[in-house]
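User: Predict Endonuclease YncB, thermonuclease family's structure from this.
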Amino acid sequence: MSRSVTFCLTLSVLTLSALALSVLAAPVLARPAIISGMAYVIDGDTLVIRKRHIRLFGIDAFERNQTCGRFRCGTEARKALRDLTKGRTLTCETKAIDTYGRTVAACKTSDGRDVGGEMVRRGLAVAYRSFSTQYLGDESYAKSHHLGAWGYGFESPLQYRRKER
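Assistant:
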């Protein structure tokens, strides 16, 4: 066999091998990373599990020092997230990494409750429309029942952060 034929056969075998490996690895790489464990709450939409900072996907909670009328919505948001997660194992499905290096994830409690949805439904966070429309129904519920900040009037957490800078 000539050198050029041997080279072409070798190249073909290597190419096919690489293609086969990439096809086999694709389903593994496509699965989102799961982080689970007990959580330490930082604020109304950020927590830590196994030393990883996790930003809850699709919601924007009121900032720690933010008030909504006479309601301390930031303090109450943090407290509610603590109460939701206390003594429960969370399972969080990674969606992205944000600009601060935090994992953005949708988290559920050990009894199956969607943590982000629960925060929005209680009126202690708003649906973060720039990233998801998943919690718009929960937001409508909180608004129509005047729950949490919806009972006092507020500026969005995003507007509050912009103003505070």
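The two ends are 73 Å apart (CA to CA).
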